[in-house]
Amino acid sequence: SKGIMDGKRGLIMGVANKQSIAWGIAQACHEQGAEMAFSYQGEALGKRVLPLAESIGCDTVLECDVTNAESIDALFAALEKKWGKLDFVVHAIGFSDKNELRGRYVDTSAENFRMTMDISVYSFTAIAQRAEKMMPDGGSLLTLTYYGAEMVMPHYNVMGIAKAGLEASVKYMAMDLGPKNIRVNALSAGPIKTLAASGIGDFRYILKWNELNSPLRRNVSTADVGKSAMYLLSDLSSGVTGENLHVDAGYHVVGMKAEDAPDI
Ligand code: NAD
């Protein structure tokens, strides 16, 4: 059958397990006919990612720690050798010390601030630098963000500051890479129970709040995110760059939900 990603080759970064947002996107890419390579962080995760990749017919599974420039160079050297060209990259990577994803933002440490920015913000730019060289006919770069960049969310703290930086970097890179027809977009996902999210304080409460207060009155799944990612990764969004697409059951438009108001 004909898929909207037929003939496209891309790199998926950030699969840790079946719950990962990157895995939801990879499954949708597969259904739409894309060919993919995967990168993972560390041997322990590699053992989980390899069988997942193989289950959708992908045998290129490479290690890459984004805090290490040589590691990123080695990943792209391997892709250059395998394919020469690349059509898309999915960056679904973020990290912060979980001890700083609770309590007050104002108490955040300098050391964790720098690490969070390096892994969660700079890595997307570092990857774009390498991807640009492999996209002579244009391409699509996609990163994952969260509403905590735009508004204060409980416990998101330093990650909120990082996502604000990430969203700004999407706009700057959209401008820089636009002349080469390389589009750069973000997808702002609603809360989803993943490994990374388990580090955020009171995450179950945040999930429940979104379920009760979003326009669709539910949470989103990685399959919801995967389907919307097909728009940003495929030619369906050929005129779209620098965008931040909210896949959050509409939560970002809510100022206040109508309830049975108490008598006041
Ligand atoms: P996840 O734990 O499945 O994925 C996070 C990934 O980041 C993991 O695969 C991990 O290995 C990788 N990573 C961390 N440090 C790395 C490093 N130094 N080098 C290479 N990889 C590294 O969790 P997820 O929720 O799927 O997260 C994916 C992205 O989605 C993140 O950017 C996250 O902030 C974002 N996001 C998540 C939610 C949510 O509620 N889960 C909502 C909006 C946005």
TrEMBL record:
<keyword id="KW-0444">Lipid biosynthesis</keyword>
<keyword id="KW-0276">Fatty acid metabolism</keyword>
<comment type="similarity">
    <text>Belongs to the short-chain dehydrogenases/reductases (SDR) family. FabI subfamily.</text>
</comment>
<dbReference type="Pfam" id="PF13561">
    <property type="entry name" value="adh_short_C2"/>
</dbReference>
<feature type="binding site">
    <location>
        <begin position="20"/>
        <end position="21"/>
    </location>
    <ligand>
        <name>NAD(+)</name>
    </ligand>
</feature>
<dbReference type="InterPro" id="IPR036291">
    <property type="entry name" value="NAD(P)-bd_dom_sf"/>
</dbReference>
<feature type="binding site">
    <location>
        <begin position="192"/>
        <end position="196"/>
    </location>
    <ligand>
        <name>NAD(+)</name>
    </ligand>
</feature>
<keyword id="KW-0560">Oxidoreductase</keyword>
<protein>
    <recommendedName>
        <fullName>Enoyl-[acyl-carrier-protein] reductase [NADH]</fullName>
        <ecNumber>1.3.1.9</ecNumber>
    </recommendedName>
</protein>
<dbReference type="GO" id="GO:0006633">
    <property type="term" value="P:fatty acid biosynthetic process"/>
</dbReference>
<dbReference type="InterPro" id="IPR002347">
    <property type="entry name" value="SDR_fam"/>
</dbReference>
<feature type="binding site">
    <location>
        <position position="14"/>
    </location>
    <ligand>
        <name>NAD(+)</name>
    </ligand>
</feature>
<feature type="active site" description="Proton acceptor">
    <location>
        <position position="156"/>
    </location>
</feature>
<feature type="binding site">
    <location>
        <position position="41"/>
    </location>
    <ligand>
        <name>NAD(+)</name>
    </ligand>
</feature>
<dbReference type="GO" id="GO:0004318">
    <property type="term" value="F:enoyl-[acyl-carrier-protein] reductase (NADH) activity"/>
</dbReference>
<keyword id="KW-0443">Lipid metabolism</keyword>
<keyword id="KW-0275">Fatty acid biosynthesis</keyword>
<dbReference type="InterPro" id="IPR014358">
    <property type="entry name" value="Enoyl-ACP_Rdtase_NADH"/>
</dbReference>
<comment type="pathway">
    <text>Lipid metabolism; fatty acid biosynthesis.</text>
</comment>
<keyword id="KW-0520">NAD</keyword>
<feature type="binding site">
    <location>
        <position position="93"/>
    </location>
    <ligand>
        <name>NAD(+)</name>
    </ligand>
</feature>
<feature type="binding site">
    <location>
        <position position="163"/>
    </location>
    <ligand>
        <name>NAD(+)</name>
    </ligand>
</feature>
<feature type="active site" description="Proton acceptor">
    <location>
        <position position="146"/>
    </location>
</feature>
<feature type="binding site">
    <location>
        <begin position="65"/>
        <end position="66"/>
    </location>
    <ligand>
        <name>NAD(+)</name>
    </ligand>
</feature>
